[in-house]
Known about the structure:
The chain has a five-stranded antiparallel β-sheet with strand order 1-2-3-4-5. The chain has helices at residues 2-43, 47-83, 86-92, 97-144, 240-246, 257-265, 271-302, 309-337, 342-365, 375-389; strands at 157-163, 170-178, 186-198, 203-216, 223-234. 30% of the residues are buried. The chain folds into two domains: 2-138 and 253-384, no CATH class; 154-236, no CATH class. By secondary structure, it is an alpha+beta fold. The two termini are 52 Å apart. The chain contains ten helices and five strands.
Amino acid sequence: MNTIINKYILREISFPFFMTLLVFTFVLIIGKILQIMDLMVNKGVLFISILKMILFTMHAFLIFTIPISLLIAILIGLGRLSGDNEITVMKSSGVSLYQLFVPIAFMSVLAFVFSLTIGLLAPLSNFAMKNLLFEIVKQKASIGIKEKVFNDDFKGLVIYADRIPLEGDFMEGVMVNDTRLVKEPTTIIAPKGYLRSDLKSMKVILRLERGSIHSVESGLKTYKKTDFGSYDVLLDMGTALSESAKSTSKGSVDMTIRELLENMRKGGIDDAARRDMIIELNKKFSIPLSCLVFAIIGIPLGIVSRRSGKSRGFTVGLFVVTIYYTLQLAGEALGETGKLPPVIAVWAPNILMGSLGTYLFFMAAKEKHLPDLIPHVWVDRIADMWRRKRP
């Protein structure tokens, strides 16, 4: 009988979980998708690169949408069972709240493991995204330069190529107008030029060979000509994309656990940077653990009998999530400024919400009246006040 009940509860929770996860993730990522699609439509970026970018950015959203979707799914699923008095029937048949907790705990552990894996793999995904951005910048540079056209896609530069052979990655008859130095604009002429990229420095360079540099001072009194054997022109895309691609320093978000521990052991790190690393290290575990916290607090809130289980469960879920992430943001701010120890600042939301959920869970298991601090009571009171004010 327990196996049947466990499967039944899992089925009631699974469908709203995946639907909520899909909707929330899509809502959060839609802005990124529009920006990424612009790269394909207007910048000529390959479709496979677009898919990779979407894949590499998914972890930043899933780490938050998985716990939220789990909480809302528990509230909706148990709310439906409670509203149809199925919870009451189960209790009258000898099924305790602790037995109902087993399938929910199983699902919350799976969500925790999945979230933890995503969090641990996030630095690798960020690094892959960084390399992909660089490749896109390089691709955009090669696509943007067309023969017999004055190309002004690069900040402060106008590039003209008389001929670009299809079989090679070089240009012939190259002329570059460089206005980055306003006082002394220069014109560079070379018979041949190559696009070169440096993965370590994340730069795209136009290398010119056997050419000359022509410059005239602002007063048009002095003309200078300089011949060269090889001359490099750094291409600046002038967009946020290129700035992200050219960034070589790793922030705490991009570091793995090993890198965070190694950097914290090093000397010469200021207190602010050390606190930031400690916060990021603990967040890799505290955020996924919110799946278990939401499961504990979702059960007593979900089994309270009410008519509209789905809409009320969604509202209560958003209410609890808002409180949790408000505490998290406040804790991180206090930890970063040094007003609270970083470890306590990161784990405080889980401790507070977990303690509240445990208290409500045991109250519900003992069939005692739940206190008026649970969110749905506040929702009901606000709704009643609104109905009284309406004519």
